[in-house]
Amino acid sequence: MTHAVALLLYVGSLILWFRSLLSGGRGRGAVMAFALAAAGVAVHLLALARFTTEFGQLPLNGLGPSLSTVALIIGIGLVATLGLGEGRRVGIVLVPVVILLEAVAVSLGIEPAPEMLDWQGAWFAFHVTLAFAGLGGLAVAFASGLLYLVQLHELNTKRMGRLFQFTPPLATLDRLGRTALVAGLITFTLALILAWLWTINFGQSSDLWNPKVFWAVMCWFIFVAALGVRMGDGVKERRSALASVVGFSLIVISYLGLRLVSSEGGFFL
Amino acid sequence: MSPVSVVGVSHLTAPVEIRERFAFAPGEAEVALGALRTETEVQEAVLLSTCNRTELYVCPGGNEGVQEAAERVLAEKAGDVVGGTKQYLYRHDGEATVRHLYRVAGGLDSLVLGEAEIQGQVKDAYELAGRNPGTPALAGPILHRLFQSALAAGGRIRSTTPIGEGAASVASVAVDLARKIFGGLEGRQVMILGAGSTAELVVEALARDGIRGLVVSNRSHERAAELASRLSGRAVHFDEMPFELARTDILIASTSAPHPLVTRDGFRHARKDSQSGPLLILDLAIPRDVEPEVGNEANVFLYNVDHLHEILDDNLLKRRESVPEAEAIVDQYAREFLQWYGARDVVPVIRSLRARWNDVRERELERLWRKLSHLPANDRDVVEAFSKQLLNKLLHDPTKRLKQGIGNGRGVDFIDAVRYLHDLETEEADRSEGSGTGDDEEAEGIGVDVTPAKDQ
Asked: Which residues contact B54 (CB under 8 A, 6 or more apart)?
């Protein structure tokens, strides 16, 4: 029930974002949309806190709880843009991602995992939380990168319509994307280090062709690439925006692909 | 009775050389408002003086003496004008004044349709009339309500219609573009090539957003120095331009040179060692000062005169399309104000009507008690309550219809009819000998809002 309320608040926020877009960002539509999304995040957090107290485990294992947690972390990423003025408008991209993840989680059922693996201790919780935070950072970078490319297109086509008015400034989007990538890379790297330590400790497979290992390493390289393209001459901001968009899309597509082809049960997420 | 009149001059009736003679500085406006106080018939006044209009709103409306007093204040300010000042002045009265102020606040009467500055100017004018140290404010209950309502209407027009959407001048297009590229303009470096007046306006607009430094470069160094000193910038010789270009964030070119001054090769050379970020170039010159190929360079946003005019035309078209929507808001707010004002007239009538029939009720009860002297006190209370209830029911519909009449413009007829049919003139005369008006208190009892509008 609490998840449904959070989902409703997110949907309400999305409607307000689009209304704000149609009015070129005039009025208080964007502020209301952000406030509604923040309310959704608060309710979502409450829902997952209740899950933890009720079932005595963090919502990090099993597809439903994990997707809901990723959605929450992306939502928190949105709330973290509070002080960025127009930068908050990345919500128009992030909220649909949150809605999609939470809707899938709710439809699959946010229930505790039936079996507890022996490596599900505090270290596992740290590992998964850090990895999810990294993915949340990449989602924020994806949103700011996408809006950066939109704004760049509007500027290059010499249009100053409602899309131009609504979309945040290039500099703001670039700063947000860079910060999100750096924060995401740090947390994701820590998550990989922890994962490597467990693998050694619990004798798990560290074969690169293990889907979990392959996907995690690919994600890390995508982070590095998105930040790496900022070096060198030319429009590094545009390259980074493009890399964030392509990188996040690759991560989502490869995850879905691996889930479909992987025969291994218990594939994470 | 008309609530308010306005006398004024605007860009629609007078050229700038005449308008500037009517313009009041804030200190002068206070003196003028103080002078109006000596005019005994003027009860309330607000003076609105901007670069495009000077208007004096006065109460009561429909009063020739009050309007002439207002005209005198404006004429004295303008001094001797060839052909007299009257030819430039307009007068509106009653509803036309109300609608006019709402249109002014909403930017519908502005030189640049939908411009936002007027909203603040209306607010300032209203606040000036509201604070006269040592003396009662010149903006009384009617103008207080009118201006609060006008500000609310203006705000709603801007927030719900696209009338203020998009920039409406080259300077504001430049500011919008710069903001969308750089975020804030604090710390940005601007360079002007040439000394055109449009470039100057653009820089003034950018300066309001906090640019860090301004460099002016011109073939004539003297002109560059003159413009630089006026804009608190720095003049450089023309041959230093490439060096400055490397550090520039916004370049405004407006020379009359017959060939491009910024070529692609020159540009590449100038910025080859630069780690600089985006560069916004506004080429306002004809022929163009910047080769179009420069616009293809990385991180360069080049806008020439045609680009800017296309943007302006598009924005102004959108603004014009939103006028009917904005006028509908003006209609709604004007109707609400006039209803409120009309309710002020209806309050005493309703009060008299109720008093008149309450007196009758009390007299008839006295007669009844004399006939039924044996009636116990409890029964008397029941009869008295019944009489009050009956009176309330009998007067309910006439009261409601009177208030509705104010809303549909038939209020004055209804008020006259009620006064005549119920012989209220005598009643009102009797009561006026008794106590003060007590309109507000009475109005509360009969559900008519005569309180001033709340701050928006």
From this structure: B8, B9, B10, B19, B22, B23, B24, B47, B48, B74, B77
